[in-house]
């Protein structure tokens, strides 16, 4: 542990209800906190227009609460920025800030593990660990998210919105871009790495997540949000050396738009053969994805399920991608796409 280090926790949420209570309990500020050898001196909760009493509850258990101005669009990026500013205002010597979403619970011992990782690497700007779904058995969509969180330890390109960051690195890059409504963590990580900081994934449990997606409609909206994210971040950073999200954007356009249009146009002239070729192409994509998952040690059922939903995700992602370009063309604000 770094001598004299101080850690602040910033939790963000919107109508998380009981999940927020569990989140704050794990952060050590609720009536029955989870014990930890390393205690955060400042815990900030940032609320984005909740109507379920989240802000009031957070105050009642001792959190510093920031309620975002509703006259400006809510985004997770904006919430994290204001939470960071509040934490630094009240604890100016804070060295590390742990960001966590209101539907997550930090694992016991995580703060100590993350600070130890920073102590071992002066070039580390961000540290994250393993995230697992609390109820992967509740729905196929929860299971898909649990599979998505799996990542090998080491230096990584991007972390999710749950990570511990070095306060100095956060300040250097100016925090998150508040106008990025999804994949704001990817956009932030690009700028962190460009400043020379490393992003580390350590082999330690960091958080348990409760995505609570129980319907196809919720999953569709989540994938639609992803498509919007690919388009927006590619527009910001796709021209650089990394061409960030450019391949993802192209893949959505090819599989979600170009292939179906070409197959439909050619159908009358090919007696429907073009449609059969299109279906075969999707099946080959499913097989390719499932085989890739199997090489990572996934169970057969998980691999094929993930492959199936990966293929059909191109269509809601296309909707989100086109939505971004329509908003930009019309000069509309980039407002969040909620799925629960």
Tell me what the structure shows.
With 340 residues, this protein is α/β, with parallel strands linked by helices. It has two domains: 7-214, Spore Coat Polysaccharide Biosynthesis Protein SpsA, Chain A (Alpha-Beta Complex), CATH 3.90.550.10; 233-330, no CATH class. The protein has helices at 18-27, 54-60, 76-90, 110-120, 140-148, 167-173, 184-194, 216-237, 246-270, 273-295, 300-312, 314-330, and strands spanning 7-13, 42-47, 64-67, 96-101, 104-106, 124-133, 154-155, 163-166, 198-209. Strand 1, helix 1 and strand 2 (42-47) form a beta-alpha-beta unit. The protein is globular. The mean pLDDT is 93.
Describe this structure in a few short sentences.
The chain has 340 residues and is α/β, with parallel strands linked by helices.
């Amino acid at each position: 542990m770094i001598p004299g280090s101080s850690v602040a926790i910033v939790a963000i949420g919107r109508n998380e209800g009981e999940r927020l209570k569990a989140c704050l309990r794990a952060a050590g500020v609720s009536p029955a906190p989870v014990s930890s050898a390393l205690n955060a001196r400042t815990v900030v909760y940032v609320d984005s227009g909740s109507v379920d009493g989240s802000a009031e509850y957070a105050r009642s258990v001792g959190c510093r609460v920031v309620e975002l101005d509703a006259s400006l669009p809510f985004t997770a990026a904006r919430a994290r920025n204001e939470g960071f500013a509040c934490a630094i205002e009240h604890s100016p010597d804070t060295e590390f800030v742990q960001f966590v979403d209101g539907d997550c619970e930090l694992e016991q011992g995580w703060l100590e593990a993350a600070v130890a990782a920073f102590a071992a690497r002066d070039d580390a700007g961000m540290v994250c660990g393993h995230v697992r779904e609390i109820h992967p058995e509740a729905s196929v969509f929860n299971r898909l998210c649990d599979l998505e969180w799996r990542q090998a330890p080491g230096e990584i390109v991007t972390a999710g919105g749950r990570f511990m960051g070095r306060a100095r690195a956060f300040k250097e890059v100016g925090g998150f871009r508040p106008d990025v409504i999804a994949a704001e963590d990817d956009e932030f990580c690009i700028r962190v790495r460009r400043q020379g900081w490393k992003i580390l994934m350590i082999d330690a449990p960091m958080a348990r997540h409760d995505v609570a997606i129980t319907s196809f409609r919720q999953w569709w909206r989540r994938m639609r949000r992803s498509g919007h994210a690919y388009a927006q971040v590619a527009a910001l950073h796709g021209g650089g050396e990394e061409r960030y999200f450019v391949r993802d954007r192209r893949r959505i356009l090819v599989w979600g738009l170009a292939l179906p249009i070409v197959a439909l146009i050619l159908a009358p002239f090919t007696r429907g053969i073009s449609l059969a070729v299109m279906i075969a192409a999707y099946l080959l994509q499913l097989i390719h994805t499932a085989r890739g998952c199997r090489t990572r040690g996934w169970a057969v059922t998980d691999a094929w399920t993930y492959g199936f939903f990966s293929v059909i995700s191109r269509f809601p992602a296309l909707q989100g991608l086109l939505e971004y370009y329509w908003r930009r063309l019309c000069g509309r604000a980039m407002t969040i796409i909620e799925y629960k």
